[in-house]
Amino acid sequence: MAGRKKVKLAYIMNDASRKTSYNKRKNGFIKKMHEINILCDVPVCGIMYSPYESQPVVWPNLLETQRLITKFRSMPEAERNKKMVTHEMFLKQRIEKEQEKLNKLKKENREKQIRMLMNQCLTGRPLIGLDLNDLNDMECMIKECVTEIVAQIKSRKEENLAERNQTQVARTQVLAPSTDQNMHAAMETQMFDLNNMDAMQTAPWFVGDVSNQHFGYVDDQIPPL
């Protein structure tokens, strides 16, 4: 879908075209006032004089328009003129905005020009033929590039250091439970050995006192001399 053609803001010389444009924009203007009034709950009124109509067009109606005008005039002058813009002020604001755009474009073009000079110098062009302004601008751009590179290197080092610290912390958290489990298992083994030794010490049979159901004690099996 093709975009709408941008209309040049200038007086329309042809009478028929001017009248057609007026009717279209009048209806669009009334539609916008209605939308602001409904969507934003803002009281709006409009009065349009034109050579194509015997009476001015008043929206939404004459009574509501008179009420809003009376309310507006009863406001303090400072409050009433707070957001007012004269034709001169409007043109001044537009000029300032266009001047800002122009300055931005000039800066971008100058940066592109200096980059081209830097590339030419890297390919063998001597610096002798450059004037002082070009050299100063080139120096400023080189310093900015170096500062940006140093900042990127520092940021990359900090990121790598943070990743290493996170990895070490994760490894410590993984190894800590296994170490605790090993210590717990060793303690259980040690307790088991101590319990076995106590059981052996309290048992009723030892070497030399081993009883036998059929032969009695071991010492009784030795025949008398």
UniProtKB/TrEMBL annotation:
One of its GO terms (molecular function) is DNA-binding transcription factor activity, RNA polymerase II-specific. It comes from the Eukaryota. It is found in: Nucleus. PROSITE patterns: MADS_BOX_2 (PS50066). CDD domains: MADS_SRF_like. Keywords: Coiled coil, DNA-binding, Nucleus, Transcription, Transcription regulation. GO terms for biological process: positive regulation of transcription by RNA polymerase II. It holds the Pfam family SRF-TF. GO terms for cellular component: nucleus. Residues 88-115 form a coiled coil. InterPro entries: MADS-box/MEF2_TF, SRF-like_MADS-box, TF_MADSbox, TF_MADSbox_sf. Residues 2-50 form the MADS-box domain. Its main location: nucleus. This is MADS-box domain-containing protein.
